[in-house]
Amino acid sequence: MRESVSLTDQVVLDASRPLWITHLRPDPRRLTLAVVSIARLRERGPHDLAALRARYLTAAETEQAATLRAPRRRVEWLAGRLALKHAVSAHGRRHWGLAREPRTVEVRAVSGGLQGGRPVVDAPVEVGLTHSGDFAVAVCGPHAVGVDLEHDRPMPPTLARLLDEECDPRAPSADARRLAAMPATLRWTCKEAVLKYYGFGLRIDAGEVALTGWLPDGRFTWRPGGGAAAPRPRRRDAAAGRLGRRGRRPSPGTGGKAAGRLSRARHPGVADLPGVPGVRTVPGGSPRARHAKRRKRRPS
Question: Coiled-coil ranges per the record (predicted)?
Protein backbone atom coordinates (compact mmCIF):
# COMPACT_ATOMS: atom_id res chain seq x y z
CA MET A 1 0.00 0.00 0.00
CA ARG A 2 1.54 3.30 -1.07
CA GLU A 3 1.90 5.86 1.67
CA SER A 4 0.22 9.19 0.96
CA VAL A 5 2.34 12.32 0.97
CA SER A 6 0.87 15.45 2.50
CA LEU A 7 1.74 19.00 1.56
CA THR A 8 2.96 19.57 5.11
CA ASP A 9 5.81 17.17 4.38
CA GLN A 10 6.75 18.89 1.12
CA VAL A 11 6.41 22.65 1.56
CA VAL A 12 8.66 24.93 3.55
CA LEU A 13 7.27 28.32 4.58
CA ASP A 14 10.38 30.08 5.88
CA ALA A 15 10.38 33.87 5.66
CA SER A 16 14.19 33.92 5.85
CA ARG A 17 14.48 32.05 2.54
CA PRO A 18 14.10 34.41 -0.44
CA LEU A 19 12.96 31.64 -2.81
CA TRP A 20 11.95 28.00 -2.38
CA ILE A 21 10.84 25.68 -5.19
CA THR A 22 9.62 22.09 -5.11
CA HIS A 23 7.94 19.58 -7.41
CA LEU A 24 4.99 18.20 -5.50
CA ARG A 25 4.31 14.50 -5.16
CA PRO A 26 2.78 12.28 -6.36
CA ASP A 27 4.77 12.81 -9.57
CA PRO A 28 1.91 12.04 -12.01
CA ARG A 29 0.19 15.26 -10.89
CA ARG A 30 3.13 17.23 -12.32
CA LEU A 31 2.70 20.21 -10.01
CA THR A 32 5.48 22.69 -9.25
CA LEU A 33 5.26 25.10 -6.32
CA ALA A 34 7.33 28.21 -5.67
CA VAL A 35 7.42 30.29 -2.48
CA VAL A 36 8.84 33.83 -2.45
CA SER A 37 9.46 35.58 0.86
CA ILE A 38 7.66 38.91 0.87
CA ALA A 39 9.39 39.61 4.18
CA ARG A 40 12.81 39.48 2.51
CA LEU A 41 11.65 41.74 -0.30
CA ARG A 42 10.42 44.30 2.22
CA GLU A 43 13.95 44.46 3.60
CA ARG A 44 15.30 45.49 0.20
CA GLY A 45 15.90 49.14 -0.54
CA PRO A 46 14.35 51.02 -3.48
CA HIS A 47 17.41 50.46 -5.69
CA ASP A 48 17.45 46.71 -5.07
CA LEU A 49 13.73 46.44 -5.83
CA ALA A 50 14.19 48.47 -9.00
CA ALA A 51 17.00 46.12 -10.04
CA LEU A 52 14.76 43.09 -9.49
CA ARG A 53 12.01 44.64 -11.57
CA ALA A 54 14.46 45.44 -14.36
CA ARG A 55 15.85 41.91 -14.28
CA TYR A 56 12.62 39.93 -14.15
CA LEU A 57 9.72 41.97 -15.53
CA THR A 58 8.71 42.32 -19.17
CA ALA A 59 7.84 45.72 -20.59
CA ALA A 60 4.12 45.11 -20.09
CA GLU A 61 4.67 43.94 -16.52
CA THR A 62 6.84 46.96 -15.77
CA GLU A 63 4.06 49.19 -17.03
CA GLN A 64 1.54 47.43 -14.79
CA ALA A 65 3.85 47.67 -11.77
CA ALA A 66 4.05 51.43 -12.26
CA THR A 67 0.28 51.72 -11.74
CA LEU A 68 0.51 50.34 -8.19
CA ARG A 69 0.64 53.29 -5.80
CA ALA A 70 1.04 51.66 -2.38
CA PRO A 71 4.63 50.52 -1.65
CA ARG A 72 3.37 47.49 0.27
CA ARG A 73 1.18 46.39 -2.62
CA ARG A 74 4.05 46.87 -5.10
CA VAL A 75 6.24 44.50 -3.08
CA GLU A 76 3.47 41.89 -2.78
CA TRP A 77 2.73 42.12 -6.50
CA LEU A 78 6.41 41.72 -7.38
CA ALA A 79 6.69 38.70 -5.06
CA GLY A 80 3.74 37.08 -6.81
CA ARG A 81 5.25 37.64 -10.26
CA LEU A 82 8.58 36.24 -9.13
CA ALA A 83 6.87 33.16 -7.68
CA LEU A 84 4.90 32.54 -10.88
CA LYS A 85 7.90 33.02 -13.16
CA HIS A 86 10.14 30.71 -11.13
CA ALA A 87 7.41 28.06 -10.86
CA VAL A 88 6.83 28.04 -14.64
CA SER A 89 10.57 28.00 -15.37
CA ALA A 90 11.25 25.13 -12.95
CA HIS A 91 8.24 23.20 -14.24
CA GLY A 92 9.52 23.52 -17.80
CA ARG A 93 12.97 22.24 -16.91
CA ARG A 94 11.53 19.31 -14.98
CA HIS A 95 8.79 18.17 -17.34
CA TRP A 96 9.64 19.55 -20.79
CA GLY A 97 13.44 19.64 -20.70
CA LEU A 98 13.13 23.34 -21.56
CA ALA A 99 15.75 25.73 -20.19
CA ARG A 100 13.65 28.90 -20.06
CA GLU A 101 14.81 31.71 -17.84
CA PRO A 102 12.23 33.04 -15.32
CA ARG A 103 12.57 36.58 -16.68
CA THR A 104 11.28 35.45 -20.10
CA VAL A 105 7.99 34.15 -18.66
CA GLU A 106 5.28 36.77 -19.11
CA VAL A 107 2.45 36.92 -16.58
CA ARG A 108 -0.82 38.58 -17.46
CA ALA A 109 -4.19 38.82 -15.77
CA VAL A 110 -7.56 38.09 -17.33
CA SER A 111 -8.97 41.55 -17.98
CA GLY A 112 -12.70 41.01 -17.56
CA GLY A 113 -15.59 38.68 -17.07
CA LEU A 114 -16.09 36.21 -14.26
CA GLN A 115 -12.40 35.34 -14.24
CA GLY A 116 -11.15 38.91 -14.26
CA GLY A 117 -7.82 39.13 -12.43
CA ARG A 118 -6.93 35.44 -12.79
CA PRO A 119 -3.21 35.09 -13.63
CA VAL A 120 -2.20 33.44 -16.90
CA VAL A 121 1.23 32.87 -18.44
CA ASP A 122 2.65 32.49 -21.95
CA ALA A 123 3.33 28.78 -21.51
CA PRO A 124 1.19 25.62 -21.93
CA VAL A 125 0.41 25.41 -18.22
CA GLU A 126 -2.15 26.64 -15.74
CA VAL A 127 -1.08 28.63 -12.69
CA GLY A 128 -2.46 29.59 -9.31
CA LEU A 129 -1.30 32.38 -7.02
CA THR A 130 -1.92 33.49 -3.46
CA HIS A 131 -0.40 36.11 -1.15
CA SER A 132 -0.54 36.06 2.63
CA GLY A 133 1.55 37.85 5.21
CA ASP A 134 5.19 37.11 4.49
CA PHE A 135 4.68 34.78 1.52
CA ALA A 136 3.65 34.64 -2.11
CA VAL A 137 2.92 31.09 -3.27
CA ALA A 138 2.52 30.03 -6.91
CA VAL A 139 1.54 26.61 -8.23
CA CYS A 140 2.02 25.51 -11.84
CA GLY A 141 0.72 22.42 -13.63
CA PRO A 142 -0.70 20.99 -16.86
CA HIS A 143 -4.28 21.48 -15.70
CA ALA A 144 -6.24 23.97 -13.63
CA VAL A 145 -5.17 24.52 -10.04
CA GLY A 146 -6.44 26.69 -7.21
CA VAL A 147 -4.35 27.64 -4.20
CA ASP A 148 -5.03 29.79 -1.16
CA LEU A 149 -2.88 30.63 1.84
CA GLU A 150 -3.76 32.86 4.78
CA HIS A 151 -2.61 33.62 8.30
CA ASP A 152 -4.20 31.73 11.17
CA ARG A 153 -6.09 34.61 12.73
CA PRO A 154 -9.53 35.15 14.29
CA MET A 155 -12.32 35.36 11.74
CA PRO A 156 -15.12 37.92 11.90
CA PRO A 157 -17.81 36.46 14.19
CA THR A 158 -20.53 36.67 11.55
CA LEU A 159 -18.49 34.77 8.98
CA ALA A 160 -17.35 32.19 11.53
CA ARG A 161 -20.96 31.59 12.54
CA LEU A 162 -22.04 31.14 8.92
CA LEU A 163 -19.23 28.67 8.29
CA ASP A 164 -20.18 26.70 11.40
CA GLU A 165 -23.76 26.34 10.17
CA GLU A 166 -22.71 23.77 7.56
CA CYS A 167 -20.91 21.61 10.14
CA ASP A 168 -22.39 19.06 12.53
CA PRO A 169 -20.08 17.69 15.25
CA ARG A 170 -22.62 14.89 15.84
CA ALA A 171 -22.87 13.85 12.19
CA PRO A 172 -22.97 10.08 11.58
CA SER A 173 -20.01 10.30 9.18
CA ALA A 174 -16.55 10.45 10.72
CA ASP A 175 -15.41 12.68 7.84
CA ALA A 176 -18.22 15.14 8.60
CA ARG A 177 -17.32 15.16 12.30
CA ARG A 178 -13.71 15.91 11.44
CA LEU A 179 -14.93 18.78 9.28
CA ALA A 180 -16.68 20.27 12.32
CA ALA A 181 -13.34 20.15 14.17
CA MET A 182 -11.51 21.77 11.26
CA PRO A 183 -10.54 25.40 12.07
CA ALA A 184 -12.99 27.85 10.52
CA THR A 185 -10.14 29.74 8.86
CA LEU A 186 -8.97 26.57 7.17
CA ARG A 187 -12.49 25.75 6.00
CA TRP A 188 -12.73 29.18 4.43
CA THR A 189 -9.42 28.68 2.65
CA CYS A 190 -10.51 25.33 1.23
CA LYS A 191 -13.59 27.01 -0.20
CA GLU A 192 -11.55 29.76 -1.78
CA ALA A 193 -9.06 27.29 -3.28
CA VAL A 194 -11.99 25.63 -5.07
CA LEU A 195 -13.31 28.98 -6.29
CA LYS A 196 -9.84 29.93 -7.51
CA TYR A 197 -9.66 26.72 -9.50
CA TYR A 198 -12.68 27.87 -11.47
CA GLY A 199 -11.09 31.30 -11.82
CA PHE A 200 -13.92 33.07 -10.00
CA GLY A 201 -12.30 33.80 -6.65
CA LEU A 202 -14.73 35.72 -4.47
CA ARG A 203 -16.75 36.97 -7.42
CA ILE A 204 -19.32 34.40 -6.43
CA ASP A 205 -20.66 33.48 -3.01
CA ALA A 206 -18.30 31.18 -1.13
CA GLY A 207 -21.43 29.42 0.11
CA GLU A 208 -21.70 27.89 -3.36
CA VAL A 209 -18.93 25.55 -2.22
CA ALA A 210 -20.31 23.37 0.58
CA LEU A 211 -17.69 21.33 2.40
CA THR A 212 -18.92 17.86 3.36
CA GLY A 213 -15.99 16.15 5.04
CA TRP A 214 -12.36 16.20 6.08
CA LEU A 215 -10.50 12.96 5.39
CA PRO A 216 -7.79 11.52 7.66
CA ASP A 217 -5.09 12.08 5.03
CA GLY A 218 -5.83 15.83 4.83
CA ARG A 219 -8.13 15.90 1.80
CA PHE A 220 -11.58 17.39 2.03
CA THR A 221 -14.78 16.67 0.14
CA TRP A 222 -17.30 19.18 -1.17
CA ARG A 223 -20.41 19.61 -3.27
CA PRO A 224 -22.09 22.58 -4.96
CA GLY A 225 -23.84 24.51 -2.21
CA GLY A 226 -26.88 26.70 -1.94
CA GLY A 227 -25.14 29.97 -1.18
CA ALA A 228 -26.17 30.12 2.47
CA ALA A 229 -22.79 29.62 4.09
CA ALA A 230 -21.26 33.02 3.37
CA PRO A 231 -22.35 36.63 2.86
CA ARG A 232 -23.84 37.31 -0.56
CA PRO A 233 -21.62 39.07 -3.12
CA ARG A 234 -21.96 42.75 -3.83
CA ARG A 235 -24.61 43.73 -6.37
CA ARG A 236 -22.07 44.24 -9.13
CA ASP A 237 -20.94 40.63 -8.71
CA ALA A 238 -24.43 39.16 -8.60
CA ALA A 239 -24.28 37.98 -12.21
CA ALA A 240 -21.46 35.57 -11.44
CA GLY A 241 -23.95 32.75 -10.89
CA ARG A 242 -23.53 29.46 -9.10
CA LEU A 243 -21.43 26.38 -9.49
CA GLY A 244 -23.41 23.99 -11.65
CA ARG A 245 -23.33 20.24 -11.47
CA ARG A 246 -22.22 19.79 -15.06
CA GLY A 247 -19.97 21.55 -17.51
CA ARG A 248 -16.40 22.72 -17.62
CA ARG A 249 -14.57 25.75 -16.36
CA PRO A 250 -15.45 28.81 -18.47
CA SER A 251 -12.80 30.31 -20.68
CA PRO A 252 -11.19 33.55 -19.46
CA GLY A 253 -13.61 36.42 -19.60
CA THR A 254 -16.69 34.32 -20.29
CA GLY A 255 -19.76 33.56 -18.27
CA GLY A 256 -21.65 30.35 -17.77
CA LYS A 257 -21.87 27.75 -15.07
CA ALA A 258 -18.93 25.74 -13.88
CA ALA A 259 -18.46 22.43 -12.20
CA GLY A 260 -16.20 19.42 -12.25
CA ARG A 261 -15.23 16.46 -10.23
CA LEU A 262 -12.13 16.67 -8.14
CA SER A 263 -9.04 14.54 -8.14
CA ARG A 264 -7.48 12.35 -5.47
CA ALA A 265 -4.38 14.53 -5.22
CA ARG A 266 -3.09 14.83 -1.69
CA HIS A 267 -1.82 18.38 -1.48
CA PRO A 268 -3.35 20.35 1.42
CA GLY A 269 -4.44 23.80 0.44
CA VAL A 270 -4.28 23.12 -3.29
CA ALA A 271 -7.37 22.44 -5.35
CA ASP A 272 -5.93 20.30 -8.13
CA LEU A 273 -8.78 19.52 -10.51
CA PRO A 274 -8.17 18.02 -13.94
CA GLY A 275 -11.76 18.78 -14.98
CA VAL A 276 -12.77 15.22 -15.82
CA PRO A 277 -15.17 12.90 -13.99
CA GLY A 278 -13.61 11.29 -10.96
CA VAL A 279 -13.73 11.28 -7.20
CA ARG A 280 -15.32 14.40 -5.77
CA THR A 281 -12.51 15.19 -3.38
CA VAL A 282 -10.04 17.99 -3.14
CA PRO A 283 -6.90 18.28 -1.01
CA GLY A 284 -7.45 19.55 2.50
CA GLY A 285 -5.22 21.74 4.64
CA SER A 286 -2.41 21.47 7.12
CA PRO A 287 -1.79 23.17 10.48
CA ARG A 288 1.24 24.90 8.95
CA ALA A 289 -0.94 26.67 6.43
CA ARG A 290 -4.06 27.66 8.31
CA HIS A 291 -5.74 30.68 6.92
CA ALA A 292 -8.09 33.59 7.55
CA LYS A 293 -9.32 35.48 4.53
CA ARG A 294 -9.16 39.26 4.48
CA ARG A 295 -12.49 40.54 3.32
CA LYS A 296 -10.89 43.16 1.08
CA ARG A 297 -10.15 41.65 -2.31
CA ARG A 298 -6.69 42.33 -3.67
CA PRO A 299 -5.90 42.10 -7.37
CA SER A 300 -3.59 39.35 -8.55
Answer: none
